[in-house]
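Hey,
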Amino acid sequence: MKNHALRRIALVSVILLVLMLGVIVLVSTLYFRGFTADNCAKDAQKLKTSIDEILTYYDFSRVERSAEDEDYMLLREFLRYQCQQYGAKYICLFHADTDKDMMEYIMVSAGDDRDHEQIADERSLGTEIALEKNQYILQAADGGFSEAEHFYNEFGDMISYYFPVEANDPDGRPLLAGVDFEVTEINRKALDYTLRITVTAAGVLTLMLAALLFVLRRKVFVPIKQISMQMNSFDPEKEQPELEIRSYREIEEIGESFNAMSKDIVRYIGDIRLMADERARSSAELNVARSIQIGMVPKEHSESGSGYELRAFAFPAREVGGDFYDCFMSGNGLCFVIADVSGKGIASALFMAMTKNLIREKLKAGLSPAEALNSVNDELCSQNPEGMFVTAFAAVLDTRTGEVRYANAGHTRPLMLGSEKRFLVPDTGTALGVFEDAGIVDEYLMLRDGEGMLIYTDGVTEAVSAGRELFGEQRIIDEVRAGSADESASSLTEAVKSFSEGCEQSDDLTLLTVYYRSTGVTESMELPAEPPAMREIRSVVNRLAEGSENRLRFCLACEETVQNIIDYSGSPTIAVTAVLAGGTLTVRLEDSGKPFDPVANMPAEKDFDECDSGGMGIRLVTQIASSVVYSRIGDKNILVMEFKL
């Protein structure tokens, strides 16, 4: 039986719902039990105040003389009312003789009618029992409010509090009071609170789950099924009815693409049938493929934006080629890719189109360059009957800080452009589509303002001159001019064309240059991972955020993060980059300590009494910063925080 996505989502959602309810039950039970027990101590304090106030009006010599006295009975009824008012099981008044280790009962009251009468017989006026060095009663005898005593006896599972009370006792003997709370009642209240919260949460979560599944079925799965049925029944010999999809924009675009594709296919088949011979049909196919490829990979492309400028060229060796480049924004990152597919012609172009779309999809989904390339490699290996492969270089430039994260899948070495030109030596993984484990890893570098990168295919280094020489890497360094993206790309392109003039182009030639253009004020430093580092970082933040009313909050967030690195990372140094641009302060912290993601390990909210147990600093940071992003690249921890001025 085939697995259906909706069923699987429903099953996973139910499992998550059950787990969430289990956590809610556990947390609620522990919380409300502790909450109720804390209330017992507060109620005992309130009872002490009430008893002190009422005893000031009684002649205690009469109260202690006879249990039949009117004052005795009124006082006992008052204590009974207090039991009912505060949920206590028993309240007793007694004298404690610490020298003789004896205690003498004056009276005992209970909230329950039956217990009230029974306890009057068992603990009547003048009843004496052994004190047995009870530390809690001794605390009260010394004039203090005792800690909670938890015990089991013939009256049940109890929590008791003892305290001295003020009374007009002519003998001057200290009068003590004891308040007993039944643990079973405490647990009952906690269970009652827990059940109410659990039932409410279960109802809300179930409704949310049902609504989510309903929306998914109506807006996602039903439209996809409709598209699938239309694709299965597609017949190029017949006129196809257009799909009318009412769903999210992405799915509607799939339907629109299918409609356009259906029309194109029918039109192309009609065109091919009109061709006079195989040569004409082949020419038509090549023209279609070339127009598609030019649409996907223009011969020239130039763009610039906040924090960057980019220039690219692509010259296929035949009508269609296998090289491609791509560039697009994803959040604050400029993603740029260059790749070289094995072979030439239509097969390479098709493989190129599939690979290009897969890499773009992965990077737009937020994957790092290495994660994107490894994921694409897995998909290519699973659907590559012709055994084709592609070398690729993918990178993401953080336009705020100049950080470039990159990954290399068997591609040529990139060239750094700036005050000096040098080749990077990345950890080169296997080309995509060869082995299931490509071993591609993320690496990074920091570009300063005005620095850039050149990435290219082997059509540059392997360009052949009339004298059968290869262009090579050294000529790249000699011929490329640093300064701007257009100047660098154009100078190298012209140099390669001039070098191979008079020779047929043997391989696709594709290159791309990217420059980082800082749009704000940047300060960078590397500090020892010691407390004085916080003073330096505070100075930088104060300077860049000058005039902001939240400046001190930004400093506090940075100090909390740096203190965490100093205390736990084990790194000897901290690299700091702070950028102020467009009303946003970006702070990047880098250390070589042990791997630790503070955002993923952020503790849940705590009660006030638990705050001193630690772990709340990062929660404070996330509340102050507009975004906090952690990543682990190689042996480095990198944390980027954004603060809106």
